[in-house]
Structures are given as C-alpha cells and as structure tokens.
Amino acid sequence: MGIERDSMEVDVLIVGAGPAGLAAAIHLSNLIEKAREKGELKGAAASDEFTMMIIEKGAEVGDHMLSGAVLDPLSLDELMSDWKEQNPPAYVPVKSEALYYLTEKGQFKSPYTPPAMNNHGCYIISLNQFVKWLGGITEAKGVEVFSGMAGSSAIIEDGVFKGVITDDKGLDKEGQPKGNFEPGIELRSKITILAEGPRGSLTKAVQSELKLDEGRNPQSYLTGVKELWEIPAGRIKAGTVYHTMGYPLGMKQFGGSFNYAMTDELLSIGLTSALNYQDPRFDPHAAFQEFKRHPFISSLLKGGKMIKYGAKTIGEGGYFAMPQLHSDGLMLIGECAGYLNSMRIKGVHLAFKSGMLAAETAFDALTSEDYSAKTLSAYASHFRKSWAFTELWKVRNFHQGFESGLMGGMIHTAAQMITGGRGFSERLTAEPDHVHMRRLSEMPEARLQIEKKFDGELTFDKLSDVYASGTKHEENQPAHLVIGDLSICYDKCTEEYGNPCVNFCPASVYEFIEDEENGERKLQLNPSNCVHCKTCDIADPYKNINWTTPEGGGGPVYSQM
Ligand code: SF4
C-alpha cells in the first residue's frame, strides 16, 4: 500500500529514550547552552529553528527499561555532577556482595570475587524510575520527547542516513487502514543517533545495509528473565548483591543469576542464559522458575509476592562485536552499539558515556555544519581515548572464552585476567548464537531436567508472568513478528528442532494449536503478549523470524523494574 506521509525536518534525531539516548540529549543541550552563554555558539545549533527530538516506542519514557540494576555512577557523575541534588529516585549503595556456585540442593560461597565484578561504590536502582527521572530533566532542557512513537524504518539515500519513518497507527491485522488510521511521519534529520537498546530493529537493518558489521564478530546475546518480589523483612538487607552460577544451567551453559535487595522487603531477582545454547528444548523462562525452586533462593522468596515480570536480551559479544559506530548522518550508541561490559554484565554506565561521546561529536558537526562520516568518525576516536574503551578492552575476549562451556570459559577468564584481557589469543572469534543449536536427532536427551509445572506462588507460567509485565498492544494490528516462510515452521523446524520458538519465547507468543476446521496443527501467534525481548529474532535456527516494531505505545510497562 503506497502511503502519503508528512515530512518533518529536525537537526538531531535520537531514536530511543533509554540511558544512552537521554544522556546524548542532556549532554548536547548542555554543550549548546555553555557555548551560547560564552557567545561562541556557531552553526546549525545557533539557529532559532534548531530542533532536537527523541522518539521512544514505549507509551511513556521508562516503560521499556529493564535491567538488574546495579549502577556504576562513573558516567552519571560526569553527565551531572550534582545528580544527587536533583531529586533522583531511590538509589541504594551496595553494602555487601557475594558470588555463589549452586549445586542442585546446596551452594558454595566463592572466597573470591573477581575485581571486575566488584560493585563497591555502585548503587542498586530501578532503571525504569531512573530513566523516567532523566526523561523529565531532558524535557526541561527543551528537547522534544515523543513517547508512543516507534522508528519503523530508516531513510537511507545514496548511502547517507537521512532519518526515520515512524510507525503507522490504525492498520488492521491485514494491514488495511481502520477509521483511526494515521500514517507514520518522515522525520528527516541532519544527524540521527540510534539508541534502540539490544538488537534494535533499525540498527539491525542499517548495519546490514551500510555494512557496519563487516569484519566484526557477530553479536552474542543472553536472555535475562526477571521478577520483582515483595518479601518478608529480615531475609536480606537493603544493598545486598548476590550473583550465582551453576544450577539450573550447570557447567555446559553460560549464564547466572542476580539477586539485588532494593530495600529490606523488595528483591530484584533474575536469571540470564546465553543464547548460544545447544538444546532446542531449553526454555529461559522455565529455567528461571526452576532456579527459584533452589532451597537457597526459595528461602528468600517464600511467603513473598511476585509483583512484576520482564525479559530482555543483553548483547554480550564485547568489543570485537561492536559495529562501526558511525556513518554519514548516523551514530550508534548504547546497547545497540554493543556497549556492555560482558564480565560485569553491566551496560548502563557505558550507555551514558556513549551518549556523551556522541553528543560531543554531534556538537562539533553542528558547529561546522558537516554531518559526513568523516566528521562523525571523531566519535570512534573519542571512544578509543575514553575510559569506556579501556574498560571494554580489558574484557574483549571474555564472552568468546565460554563458547565451549563453563569450565573452558573459566580457564580463559583466568588467562585473560593475567594478560590484561588477551588470554590465549589477541582476538577470539565467535559464531552467531543460533548456529549452536543442535537438532533433536543429535540430542535425544534433554540437557536440563526442568519441571514445567508452576504453583502460582513461587513459580509462574508464562501467561501469569506476562500479565505481571503490564504488556498491552492494540490487538487489531499487523503481527509485528514476521515469519519469513511458514512452511519451514511446519515441516523442517517441527521435525528437526521441535519448534524451539515455543520454548525460547518467554511470553508465550508462539503456540501450536489444532485448527478447528481441519484438525491440523497450526502456528498461532499471540503478538499482543510480546515483551519486546528480541530473543526470537536472535535464537531462531533458520533466521525465519524478524522482529519489527508494533504500533508505538504497545509493549511492557516495567514500572519499578
Ligand atoms: Fe521476545 Fe520474540 Fe517472544 Fe516477543 S515474540 S517476547 S521478542 S521472544
């Protein structure tokens, strides 16, 4: 359907109001303000018409924010040295921390926490609340923040990034306009900064079209599944951080848990599992439920109440999986650009820093009114001179070291810690996550024996958890999960892998049911359950699923998470 669209010119367009996008907007506003005060403001930013805009697919800023989260305040201190005086949401200093190895029924406390995993000086926060707060600060600086608006496709002309087209609203399931149809707008920008978070859909398309990932390692991912629990006081003290390895993932699968006491009675708890797993029956949601059955964990939760659920992917590939960070008219920041310390599984501080580095580059480009790749390449140079590069370089081979399992990974990690991140090779490579999955014929026995029965008190089925995520979408809209070739699902995938989408999706979006008319087995998609984690876009062994943006405003509402 050919759609006529309005077009709007903006100077700087930021896609995604997460920590990276908001830091970019705040820092660029501050740089402009300082230059104006000194009478030194020149170029496009000096114009009265200057516009900086952020679009965000969540209904409200912060709604799609999900993280542990333990914040390293290093970059927030750089962004706003007085942030503690600006009425931030609750932040609890980390007071004690421990690393445990879980066996099926017991646990061992590690006598040693690797320095990179030390959280001294960090704070336990709700990322949702922090981002909401930063969104208010950003708007107060005059930045136009439009939530409920997704960037659906990129405008690239002659290899130059020119902006994005926002989501069409009011299409029905067949893609036909309903009475309330509103076409998306062409937002044409001098500079676009993509801050979409892990596996951004625009980032994915642009990386491939502009070849930004050429010569890089493929990005590797974990899926993190998290719940927020109200628990009886006296079990764990506010500011306590526990990480665990082992049960239920064992020695053959990379991942582990986080348990953060936000208050004496509020526990953030989750399990992350690498998506380079082999067993197509593996189910990250069920593994998390199993984890909660462990006596060490259930003793924390018993008698408590689960109040919130969420899931997201985490880009773990490290420095060598970072794409080229810029192109003509474009910069990539935050997790969609791979800014994540894979050993610490921490990216918020790097997201802030990447936004600031991109803002400094954008300021110079606006001053010289030159938005070419040559000018914007200064962003990559700023990055290489920053502490963010030093931090990421030290863990450049970390995730790849675990390609062959936990034991091998620990040996690699020890070698990397002695050699400043090098380990046994200057650059360890990795394969895309989905190629690790084995056919059922190669793996007749399930690797993990996980009970998929849930009691509704300690453990929950996917639908109960989706309910707790606050997820809502307009039901009558085109499915945003686009299946390339349905026959693969019915034939090859059923036979070879047993349709792993049913297992790896933590929100029951993929279901096989019996067709009422002919009794045949058919795939039923439940896109309105989707929590936007992107696992399916990554883990499908045939690359047959493409996650696209649904109508803006749909998706989870991760309040307090
Ligand atoms: Fe995640 Fe895909 Fe399921 Fe949505 S459909 S919740 S993106 S796995």
User: How much helix is in the residues?
Assistant: 25-40%
What value does the Rg take, in angstroms? Answer: 23 Å
Distance between the termini: 39 Å
Overall 3D shape: globular
CATH-derived architecture of the domain at 7-69 and 131-218 and 319-393: 3-Layer(bba) Sandwich
Strand content: 15-25%
The profile of the biggest β sheet is: 8 strands, mixed
Q: Which compounds are bound in this model?
A: iron/sulfur cluster
- CATH homologous superfamily of the domain at 7-69 and 131-218 and 319-393, by name? FAD/NAD(P)-binding domain
What integer is the average pLDDT? 96
> How many β-strand runs?
24
Output the number of helix runs.
Answer: 15
Oligomer: single chain
Structural class: alpha+beta
CATH topology annotation of the domain at 7-69 and 131-218 and 319-393: FAD/NAD(P)-binding domain
Low-confidence stretches: none
CATH secondary-structure class of the domain at 7-69 and 131-218 and 319-393? Alpha Beta
